[in-house]
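Good day; I would like, with your permission, to put a structural problem before you. The record follows directly beneath this note:
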Amino acid sequence: MSSNLPDGGSPGSYTEKLTIETPEQTSLDFAIAGIGSRFLALALDTLIQVLVGFLVGIGGTMAIGAVEAVLPKTAMWGFALLVLFYFLLFFGYFSFFEIIWNGQTPGKRKAGIRVIKDSGRPLTAAESIARNLLRIVDWLPAFYAVGIASALLTKENKRLGDLVAGSLVVRESSFGELKPVWQTAQAPSSPSLAPLGAANLTAEESALIDSFLTRRSELDYNVRVRMAEQIFQRLKPKLTLPADNTLPTESILEGLAYERRATRGYA
């Protein structure tokens, strides 16, 4: 993995682009999200949390008061549940959305950024939970002071949670910008091919296909064949291939890339 830094890679400098060498021997370029876009995402997420917390707090307090009038000893349990809810709201909120939305929260989605692993892979549920539990420390002493300091002092704008989970935040446009030069003017050789299941692939998997197709002409033939097969075998469980499939591996990858772009309106 390597990164391109505008001023030699000194700590605290803004990392414009990160180049990741994948196990499949392909290079993926990701634009690192700046502190500004991350702050915007956090502000939007915090606004959602505050609004939900306010509404639940009013409703919960009224419900506890009503129950206390009938069962006085149960009020403490009601307040305990309310405290647990606020903990999950302010710390579980981020993990919940990052797990179900593949590295995004409502705020990150609006700001156009996403959390991924340093390797370019999606975070696992455990990594997302660990990353977000560190927000407790990042908040200290107030207003994300530790988190901001960590982001300013690291090459890739990482807060403590990112350092622990081995993650980084990139711009969502990084995935769309990997438009392959191999397919700028024409469709693959089998335009009538039935859908292969491109909709089942993640953004990272689609980016991996695009990166391979863009660079394959530069590869030694044996490396090219082996790499195409490795990518295909990794994606095969998600594909909808006919039982009597005889298509060459590269044709399948071409079809997947074209199919995904056609559904997004810029094939």
Notes: The first strand starts at residue 2 and ends at 4.
